[in-house]
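sry for the spam today, last one i promise. struct tokens for design, 155 residues
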């Protein structure tokens, strides 16, 4: 019986250690280390992104592809590109109303978000609403906004 109990404890410890737990105490083989998560306010980031130089450059590339298709006489391709631009505008509205994920935004900001994650020594960066109440959080919204230079001229 003693051997069986010891084997069970060893098996549990091996499983928990492989999942990143650290051992503490004689009878406790796992104490989950607390993750620190960088959080951002969704609405602020969505608005800043769609008004940013990053997005303006992306739109410029779409327009260029559209113009090239028209110049080549490929109306079907031009219409397809115009449809993608229209879908992008719809996506922006859905993202602002929290009815669509921010995948396209986070993909375009991947390197900036990774830099922010490292600078703040956090394990990940997520929307405020996605952070667990048990996690320590650091608001990184202003840092994301600072990296999203506005494409609009200020008077």
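last one done:
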């Amino acid at each position: 019986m003693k051997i069986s109990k010891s084997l069970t404890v060893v098996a549990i410890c091996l499983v928990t250690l492989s999942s990143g737990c650290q051992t503490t105490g004689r009878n406790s083989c796992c104490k989950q280390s607390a993750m620190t998560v960088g959080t951002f306010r969704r609405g602020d980031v969505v608005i800043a992104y769609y008004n940013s130089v990053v997005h303006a450059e992306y739109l410029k590339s779409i327009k260029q592809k559209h113009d090239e298709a028209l110049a080549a006489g490929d109306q079907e391709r031009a219409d397809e590109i115009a449809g993608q631009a229209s879908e992008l505008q719809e996506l922006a509205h859905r993202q602002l109303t929290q009815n669509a994920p921010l995948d396209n935004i986070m993909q375009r900001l991947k390197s900036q978000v990774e830099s922010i994650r490292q600078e703040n020594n956090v394990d990940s960066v997520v929307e405020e609403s996605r952070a667990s109440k048990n996690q320590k959080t650091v608001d990184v919204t202003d840092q994301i906004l600072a990296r999203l230079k506005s494409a609009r001229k200020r008077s």
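The chain has two domains: 1-33, 36-147. ok im logging off now
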